[in-house]
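Notebook entry, structure prediction.
Reason for the run: the old model in the group folder had no record of what sequence produced it. Starting over properly, with the input documented here first.
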Amino acid sequence: MRSSTQVEQRIDEQARRFLAKAPAGGVTAKLTEFIVFGLKQGWACIFGAALLAVLMAARLWYPDTAALARNDFLTLAAVTIQVLMVAFKLETLRELRVIILFHLVGTVMELFKTDVGSWSYEAEGFLRIGAVPLFSGFMYAAVGSYMVRVYRLFDLRFASYPRRWITAVLGAAIYANFFTHHYIWDLRWVLLAAVVVIYGRCVMHFRVFRKQFRMPLAIAFLLVALFIWIAENIATWSGAWLYPSQMDGWHPVGLEKLVAWFLLMIISVVLVAWVYKPQPPEAAEGDDGDGGTRRGAAVEPSAR
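New structure, fully documented this time:
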């Protein structure tokens, strides 16, 4: 199993003692797997969930007359969340490096997209670069935090994973298209087809509690993109940013944004894969490529 934080190790030990008594078959066993799956997903989303909670609270209760601009408050809150995540050992320093990379990649995109009018932020506060408040980068960092945490919490393995250099070229092309489509042809549908071709044969293997499950990786991309789209609706409702069509009144973000988030998932996976090399299912025994040892199918019941 990939290395975990000290806090997760303590939770894992407590959960094993409790869940070891759960039946190995029947409805109760299936319900246990489902509950553990939900708990793991919630734990993986802790950074993003905390950030969304702050965005909603600021929308509902932050006073308009406060001396500190709301965007500056959001930036300071995001920094505080990140510091606490590391201080309380909820994230490893290795994961933090990946999250910072997500932050930088996202901020560059934000600077360009706000300049061309794709979306906008309230022009307030001092903690910003141009028209982009610094808290915006933390929203991309939240995606990065989820990706690296879910990778180890579910001990992800991949059958028929494409060569990493091919995925890197695809990820670079997708990232470039977010910029170039404003000036030349929009290749998102071509890139979407390339994703299906390159990742179409790849199957993700993941362990919840006692059982291992499988899912086509492209389906996993779509499900995560859908989750981010829901979070985006919450963020725009809170006024974190607005699309041009929302200026005269908020309405749900269009489903066409799912394609953009789906493609962004490829960039996310490429970034994580260069830090945590994807391992095949048959590598269930022995070194996991990350300096640790992975348990095989006969592991003790684990909540992680």
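Summary: Residues 284-304 have pLDDT under 50 and may be disordered.
The old model has been moved to the deprecated folder.
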